[in-house]
């Protein structure tokens, strides 16, 4: 039942995410938007952090009481053991930096309504109600800024613990029947948004839970305007019923690039967003790196999730993945940041990417080649070929080029085995001029 409920919600969520992002807000030109989105477009990697009282029992964040796995009362008892005793925000920020991420997004308040900061709107917060007894958000946002990382705040529009929220403990009142009560909820929600905007200097908001109400009910338009007034360059994800900036496919790696030029895949390392001790179903670092490559070569970002424990320590498997990711991103910087996505499939058997000036073509070798690698249909002269991260220069050979035909020959490159990266090797082709591809369907010579 629970799975079905989640699956159904998931489908609706996905639909909303994609449709929402397709609508554009008319208040700024495409150029202005591109300027506001610039750091996000170049960031490529972000770290998502689901940290909340659900880490105490190691159960699903919020959904566990919503779907009746635990009573609301018992769920809230986790507050007593949420200690943050070993919480080291500076070490978190350093680890995030080391992974190669350029931003982090932390759950300031999930659907369970428990705020990480000392909100003046209600008393359901970590400082007021938990064993930690302090604002755990402020030191982290400060540590991010100190480490030159962008600050992203996750905020669930829905609050299943709030007495004025229509789904409070599955309460059935609808806002239309009781607009005053709904207004009270919105005052609380807008109030918290103002607190977060003015006290924590976010660069990005990551909304969630929008599927439970329409844009009109959430007052999405007004909220967007307010957020951009409080923080003029803030970026909003799509989960605002049509008033966000970028698309957020969840868990499933896209096969073709999403339509919205701005997008980010959010994904767990195992199968859980928050810390769950018994979930050891981790993706390997190599799988994570390949998924990351899939995202960036289609012009998107990866928002990779970690779930710290209730005492603030990050599980060792997650630290390991972040460090391995860091080894790879650090070596391959130029093939990651400031790239724009690759060339169409068919020219190379694997993912590709282009530098912003389109004069460097990157090839990602997902497998150990058992012979020279080949590129088809490249019209440019190639000035130099090298291995990214170690500078080794590589020779190439063009075969099959006919002087009377405009079809480019096949470009073969030998990659010495000793220069291969243990995970994914990247080859850079420095081209004469911007990449120029042969895209015709090879003429039938007999008809000429
Ligand atoms: C879903 C879930 C939520 C999770 C989020 C992360 O919307 O409701 O639990 O935090 O995905 O993307």
UniProtKB/TrEMBL annotation:
Transmembrane parts of this sequence: none
Domain of life the protein comes from: Bacteria
Gene Ontology molecular function terms on file: alpha-L-fucosidase activity
UniProt keyword annotations, A-Z: Glycosidase, Hydrolase, Signal
Record GO biological process: fucose metabolic process; glycoside catabolic process
Annotated GO CC locations: lysosome
Pfam families the UniProt entry points to: Alpha_L_fucos
EC number of the protein: 3.2.1.51
Broad EC category: hydrolase
InterPro entries found in the cross-reference section: FUC_metazoa-typ (IPR016286), GH (IPR017853), Glyco_hydro_29 (IPR000933), Glyco_hydro_29_N (IPR057739)
Signal sequence extent: 1-22
Segments forming domain Glycoside hydrolase family 29 N-terminal: 21-334
Site (May be important for catalysis): 266
Function: Alpha-L-fucosidase is responsible for hydrolyzing the alpha-1,6-linked fucose joined to the reducing-end N-acetylglucosamine of the carbohydrate moieties of glycoproteins.
Record-stated family: Belongs to the glycosyl hydrolase 29 family.
Protein name, entry field: alpha-L-fucosidase
